Amino acid sequence: MQNFVFQNPTRIIFGQAAEKKVGEQTSLYGSKVLLHYGGGSIKKYGTYQSVIESLEEVGLEYIELGGVKPNPRLALVKKGIELVEQEDIDFILAVGGGSVIDSAKAIAVGACYEGDVWDFFAKDITIKKAMPVGTVLTIPAAGSESSTSAVITKLTGMYKKSISSELIRPKFAIMNPELTFTLPNYQTACGAVDIMAHVMERYFTNTKNVELTDRLCEATLKTIIDNVPRVLKDNQDYAARAEIMWAGNIAHNGLLDTGRVGDWASHGIEHELSAIYDVAHGAGLAVVFPAWMNYVYQHDLARFAQFAVRVWGIDPDLKDLDWTACQGIKKTKEFFSSLGMPVSLPELEIPADKFEEMAAKCTAAGPRGNFVPLTKEDVVKIYQSVLN
Ligand code: NZQ
Ligand code: ZN
């Protein structure tokens, strides 16, 4: 196990009617709020009404900025930064999923910076200051509600890039599983794949002696595997929705990173797909992750065999570690498929003509990933391996 520092200061307020606490929580940090949301699901399903009632109850002023798209865009971030300045806003409240929360985080950084906020995404500049952000989560997936990162798309040049800083960890995350009852099955499944990917990025490590975090990773994966099929059958299964929502947070709040080095190549490879083709992050990962596994598993057969046995319950063939390892990859891919997720590029209607460009962007800063560092040629081969 490696040395580590762990602190996650995001206050989690979890459970039924939790959104009614948003006014009280927000008033701890600000007096004039930017209420940031997406394409309208919160208005359609009543979350918006509960949130504004709670803000009004404690006398908070708010200015709205809706319209965040999945794979959130830089242009709206810039509009948010302008609004914050014009209206003297001192707190940003994101009501939605990873896209809304990431957009809020980018506004929080840009509003404290004289230059172009994209500088932080394009260059390796340290974030020195950010406004406080709070969240009401409506989809368990990205884990942005208590993570240190934000991912934004710049349409000019088709870039999807991230920033990371302790300063953008939200102050609080309000998580009521009932708010996720309205998710279409496709979005639930995308979220489940993303959650599993966050765990697997950490699980496939070269760090030795990480027994506790291995076991925590396995428990989180098994919780998703058991509960997602339940909610796809019954959208209002509170118990299962609650397990998924909490697992989504655990998967990406930093706990599973402790003492180990994660990989993160699959996320890099996927971000190039969503940058150009605007696919849902989870759907892109359902294609990329098993392909990455197939490409690298021989680097550590024992770890992949452990994954197969402990996560998927494969009866190991002790004389054939390769077979055992492959069974875990096969099960992962079959599970994604069973959720209605794509597992090949044609299912996402992605052609082969931009593999070179995507692989070049993905490896622009050097080989990608830590478990097996991948060159541009490796990344091209991974894209090619999922052409059918
Ligand atoms: O826009 P609205 O109308 O709200 O609809 C959204 C959106 O269309 C809908 N939705 C959300 N909650 C709903 C709902 N529909 C019905 N009922 C509800 N309760 O779901 C759609 C997807 O929302 P989005 O926010 O895009 O999903 P997600 O949370 O998966 O976020 C994806 C983004 O997060 C980034 C991804 O790259 C992607 O851009 N990520 C952010 C990370 C982070 N900041 O730590 C880490 C992740 O690895 C990821 O890269
Ligand atoms: Zn992700």
Automatic annotation (TrEMBL):
Residues 9-177 form the Alcohol dehydrogenase iron-type/glycerol dehydrogenase GldA domain. GO terms for cellular component: cytosol. Keywords: Oxidoreductase. Pfam families: ADH_Fe_C, Fe-ADH. CDD domains: BDH. GO terms for molecular function: alcohol dehydrogenase (NADP+) activity; butanol dehydrogenase (NAD+) activity; metal ion binding; methylglyoxal reductase (NADPH) (acetol producing) activity. Residues 188-386 form the Fe-containing alcohol dehydrogenase-like C-terminal domain. The keyword Oxidoreductase applies. This is Uncharacterized protein. It comes from Halanaerobium salsuginis.
